[in-house]
Each structure stands twice: as C-alpha cells, then as structure tokens.
Amino acid sequence: MERTYGVGAEALAALEEHQGNRCYGCGRATGAARALAVDHNHRSGEVRMLLCSTCNRIVVGWQMRDNPVALIRLGLALIDPPTRAAWLAPGAVHPGWEDDSAELEEWLQDHGFWA
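^ thats the sequence. predicted structure below, dont judge the formating
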C-alpha cells in the first residue's frame, strides 16, 4: 500500500475508521472476507476512498471508467427516474413506486451531504 499509493498502515486504518469500516460505494462490504480496495485517481494518483471489489472494479472502474458525470446521472435517476418526466405528470408516482425522497434526504443529511 505504501509503495503503490503512499498510504501507510496508520493512514489506511484512519480511512477505514472514517468510512465506518465499510465500502464507501455500497456501504455493505466490511472488508472482513476480502480487503477493501484502495480507489485512486489514475491520472493524479490521489487516493479517493476504500471500495469493495465490485464497486471498485465493476461500478467505478470498468463500467463507468471513472466518469463522475455518469455516476451522478445514474444516482439522480434513482432519485427521480426519467420515466416520470417521460410519461407521467410532474411529481406523479407510478403505481408500484414508493416516494422515498424523504428517506433519501434524511440519509443525505445524516451523512453530511446536505446541511
């Protein structure tokens, strides 16, 4: 870790603790079965977060190619699906969908994303 990313054992432990000992992406993986991967910017080398192998390799790396715009677009689509604008009245909720915006807003506030 130190030679590859410049992150020593102490810094890695601090990052794990800061992330609650979970994958920053899915929040499920704890690294108990397989160590969390050190995600980094391939151009600058900056260490960004610890991710499980699925989030690191498939979601962020291989599928999205480190494209933050694509990840944000998908995240926003989970909050407000484009189908709502395409075939429903503004603000309408399709049968079978639950409006979870209050739950999402609470989660974002709890995790320091919104004031």
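Residues 68-79 form the longest helix (12 residues).
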